Amino acid sequence: MLKLKEDGYCYISDIGIKYELLEGIKIGGKEKNTSDIIFIMLTNPDYNVDNNIVGYLFGAGMIESNLKGYEESIKKMVTEFEEKNFVTNNIPIIVYESEDIKQYGEDLKYWCNACGDLHHHGEYDIEEKDLPKELLRAYSVLWTEGNGSLCYLVEYKGEYKIALINEFDKDYAKDTCSTMAKLFDHMKSKAVDFSEMEEFKTAQIVITEEAGFLECHEFVVLLPCDTSKDLFDKIAAILYENMYK
User: Fold this and answer.
1) Are 223 and 203 within 8 A, CB to CB?
2) Which helix (H) or strand (E) holds 125?
3) What does each C-alpha distance from 13 to 59, 110, 125, 149, 199 come to in angstroms?
4) Three-class SS of residue 73?
5) Who contacts 221 (Cβ-Cβ below 8 Å, separation ≥6)?
6) Does the pLDDT of residue 65 top 90, yes or no?
7) What is the mean pLDDT of residues 141-169?
8) Which of 21, 160, 188, 193 fits 134 for a cystine, CB–CB 3.0-4.6 Å?
9) Mind giving me the DSSP string for 174-203?
């Protein structure tokens, strides 16, 4: 979708990758913008592609009057670019930016905390016998406290899942000489990397901006409750070994 920023438009793809819309080029030491061409570019260096220019469109001065038409054209180019450069196994990658926090809270409901204490959507405590059968199986077979990720029983848009969550907070940004904005882009890049792996073909990946504890970013991997223990442990190990690299 097209999104208006302070310095112009960008495009966010269906798998959460941001592309810049740049008008014109710089010639010599003096900036000189063309009046008619829009370049669609992948400017995040975390994505290793041979050519970061997605394509271009004419009619820079007309974009405001035909946003829908431009968005359809850009989406077609971006889809072709991502099919060529990224193999995503068609798994969903859902991105919630800071303005989407309320929607995220409505979409994701918790049935336990990170210590395994059971509750119903944070409203009241429950016992194992109160869990839906899908979550009871996940709790009995899969839930763990020591695999490198925070582990939760959840309900995402009405479907029962087990979630592995990794957080990126302001202290981590400071310790790594990074910024929260760069870490958010890093998470999107990791989502694409993981989506290319066979182990993640039944997963959903959810990325949130400043939606976690103390406004941390969250990288959420949602897995079916009937996931095998071996596969669950393997995915947890992949996250542990690669998430923060």
Assistant:
1) yes
2) strand 124-125
3) 21, 28, 39, 27, 23
4) helix
5) 149, 163, 164, 165, 194, 200, 203, 204, 205, 206, 235, 239
6) no
7) 96
8) 160
9) HHTT--HHHHHHHHHHHHHHHHTSGGGTT-
